[in-house]
Amino acid sequence: MTDLDIAKKAQKKHITEIASKLGLKEEDLEMFGKYKAKIPLSKIDEDKVKQSNLILVTAISPTPAGEGKTTMSIGLSEGLNKLGKQTTVVLREPSLGPVFGIKGGATGGGYSQVLPLEDINLHFTGDFSAVEKAHNLLSAVIDNNLQSKTNNLGIDARTVAWKRVIDMNDRALRKINVGLGGTTFGIPRETGFDITAASEIMAILCLSKDLADLKTRLGNIFIGYTFKKEPIFAKDLKVQGAMAALLKEAIKPNLVQTIEGNPAIIHGGPFANIAQGTNTVIATKMGMSLSDYTVTEAGFGADLGAEKFLDIKCQSAGISPKAVVITTTIRALKYHGGADLKNLTEENVDALRKGLPNLEKHLENVQQFGIKPVIAINRFITDSDAEIEVIEDFANAKGVRVALAEVWAKGGDGAIDLAKHVIDIVEEDSANFTPMYDWKMDVKSKIEAIATKIYGADGVEYDAKAKRNLRTIAALGLEELPVCIAKTQKSLSDNDKLLGRPTGFRVTIREIEIAAGAGFLVPISGNIMRMPGLPAHPASENIDIDNDGNITGLF
């Protein structure tokens, strides 16, 4: 059966039954039908957060073959629950860009999924829409202020970097001209669209601790300069209150369920190559408040999502994981070892061995943070015993735990060995979380720490625009913000053609965006873009709905 077939055959429980596993009553919930609900922020308990066990799931550098972090996260949570550990999986919300683009849905796979699948992958509870509306409200207010004669702050339109957003892959909107048509249509200027997942509003939502913090962060969004060279922030436009009002429901995390009837919290959805790539602080702390174990995932490889999770989210929220699971697949390692994408289902021990350095680097990256990793081999039916043995021998030689996980085919039963390893690491209590850099370091030192220690680069080059951005950051007094590097997910380097574990390269930073509201800086490397495009044959071609409302083709 397909993922969608399996999900449709699953017997969903009423969301109140799922909530009861977390000690929540029906009156604690804000219901969205039978199978979805929002949880009020009052249920976060900081004392329980300190006592809970947080587990991070990451992966090797992604390939077209897929690695399955979300599937692994869900399966691990099922396995931990089977072993008697009260566990909640906390994930990001899917963006419609990938759903209709290349990747398709993002709710796990096989017997390791979250439900209701169709709702989560489409509009869900409207959080993405709220982020989009709040973002575009600020865009409209900026252009209105440029146009206004009585309420004009004197903003120099040439300095405004704030774009608009839409939750769709649409390359035609990357660069546009607005305000055309005459004096009553606005001030003509060049701008563009980013995808909603890359919005600073999404980043703010994901890092805010409550509504008051959200409103403060919204007010701190940097807009540009006046003609008198004075900085302008969203609070100068008196728009942060209205933006926060649009987000008053979106800030509450969403409760759903796994196929095996265990709780899952899904909230926020930033990408890891162009944003911080993790769910909200609120959702993670909610899981930690209501569970003994909380399993969460960070987007793409450990060089992106995991690094940002640890250096930005953990330091901002005062949390840290007890263990890190590195998801890998044999076919992905063969791809990193030079095997052709068309031949990944064929046994190729030589290519597998050549791809191991990519896994090795991600292991080293996690260990640099003072946390023990465990390798999870996401098994596929085409994996041979000889190939599995190669990874197990590699792990044993490195003194790293390894588990064969069959979560797609078996759900929680396929993650028992992995869950036991995670429990052992947690009970060893050996984690000594050490960030990769101190926020008080200068900006270039923070970027170079990540580039050299995490990516394996020889150094960093800065284009002229990036150098100007550094001077602006210094002038605004924002040098002590952490850095959220935008980089290709396909390589440890900023060149997506360099697979495996590249060496002898330098990272080029072409510009540095200021996300003062979110509380970080965004150095942009290589040719990474914040508005993806659709492929020649997008996934939307396969999606349909019948007269009874049954959706097909989401996977």
Sheet with the most strands? Answer: 12 strands, mixed
CATH superfamily of the largest domain: P-loop containing nucleotide triphosphate hydrolases
Described by the principal axes of the CA atoms, the overall outline is globular
Oligomer: single chain
Low-confidence stretches: none
**First-residue to last-residue Cα separation:** 12 Å
Structural class: alpha/beta
Arithmetic mean pLDDT? 95
Number of strands: 23
Hey, roughly how much beta strand do the residues contain?
A: 15-25%
Radius of gyration: 23 Å
Which range best describes the helical content: under 10%, 10-25%, 25-40%, 40-55%, 55-70% or over 70%? 25-40%
Number of domains: 3
CATH class of the largest domain: Alpha Beta
Specify the number of helices.
19
- CATH architectural arrangement of the largest domain: 3-Layer(aba) Sandwich
| Annotated CATH topology of the largest domain | Rossmann fold
Please tell me about this protein's structure.
The chain has 555 residues and is of the alpha/beta class. It folds into three domains: 3-126 and 250-428, P-loop containing nucleotide triphosphate hydrolases (Rossmann fold), CATH 3.40.50; 128-246, Domain 2, N(10)-formyltetrahydrofolate synthetase; 443-525, Formyltetrahydrofolate synthetase, domain 3. Helices cover 35% and strands 17% of the residues. It is built from 19 helices and 23 strands. Strand 11 (222-225) and strand 12 (231-233) form a beta hairpin. Helix 4 (69-82) packs across helix 17 and helix 14 packs parallel to helix 15. The radius of gyration is 23 Å and the shape is globular. The model has no long low-confidence stretch (mean pLDDT 95).
